[in-house]
Write a structure and sequence with these properties.
The protein is built from no helices and 11 strands. The protein is mainly beta.
């Protein structure tokens, strides 16, 4: 069992940066690939980034490549999403999630989800 709690969201202006954090509990955290998803009002949940259980592999959706960086600290059971050069279209609720599948861009393969943290980017 893995519990996930996101934090770090807020209201920022376009061009600003934010770092989202995801605190995990549970003995098996380090065996899970971790992903960040986002959901804007009226839209489906969208893959943002993922990192393998070891941290050696990462993946990003095209719209955030070069701006967002996912990282993890297995010793402290933390996952991070550094978001730079934020744009109004990044506005959404951001979710942290854990899975054991390499199809990590697909929400359905994730076993555990956090409650989400709101990110609002004003123009």
């Amino acid at each position: 069992q893995v519990q996930l709690v996101e934090s770090g969201g807020g209201l920022v202006q376009a061009g600003d940066s934010l770092r989202l954090s995801c605190a995990a509990s549970g003995r098996t955290f380090s065996s899970y690939h971790m992903g960040w998803f986002r959901q804007a009002p009226g839209k489906e949940r969208e893959f943002v980034a993922a990192i393998s259980w070891s941290g050696s592999n990462t993946d990003y959706t095209d719209s955030v490549k070069g701006r967002f960086t996912i990282s993890r600290d297995n010793a402290n059971k933390m996952v991070y999403l550094q978001m730079n050069s934020l744009k109004p279209e990044d506005t959404a609720v951001y979710y942290c999630a854990g899975c054991r599948s390499v199809s990590w861009s697909v929400p359905d393969v994730y076993n555990y989800w956090g409650q989400g943290t709101q990110v609002t980017v004003s123009s």
